[in-house]
Predict the 3D structure of the following.
Amino acid sequence: MSVHTLHTPTHPDPIRQAKIHLAAALRLAVYDGFDEGIDNHFTVCVPGHEDQYMVLPFGLHWSEARASDIMVFNEAGKTLEGQGEVELSAQSIHAPLHRMTGAKVVLHTHQPWALALNMLEDNRLMPATQTAAFFHGRIAYDDTYTGLAATLNEGERLAALMENKSVMFLKNHGVIAVGDTVAQAYRLLYKLERACKTQVLAMGTGKAIHVLEQAVIDKVRTPSVDDRHPRSERERLYFEAMMRVIDRVNPGYAD
């Protein structure tokens, strides 16, 4: 049976679809152990409205996220749709990142293995595994934690550091992943956590870590011309598979 037959139905309304994917990603983050209760934020640009952003209202636990709960806000912090208010750090960090980087999706977490690496004086992810090699040259580093984000200036500072990277390490804080789709950005978070976990575990042995040669890193980072499953399709297939998992273990995100 071809893997292409394993397809999760999509909603014809792109806004409704974005809300479903956002709610699914939030519940998936709990399943993967990336959440921190009601804190941290996932945001998605409203399709057709690049200056409006979807977010789960502050106070709801990520495990209970539903598409019908998702609210819409703008950079001024005004609620445009739904109930609740946007939490200040979501407004301060996410809105400028969307605006200045052009990212459709911005995911921010304090996921434990990535945060453990970011607690170290030298927090660079080493290209010592196939998964880590995928991120080589694609991570921006903010080496100065400035405290809780309370103004748009902080988001603008981070966006300037982000440049054209898809992931940012926030020293002593957490990580950010951006993308064009929820599937793309969330898969980055998942792969990043795996890469950070294996590095921290390897560092714990006290033995020298073997870093891959540049030629091998380049090969991993460059999609093969005969790859039967391009990266965008792998992202879609991965996220649809994980949505099916959430349908089994914590259904209701599409309500």
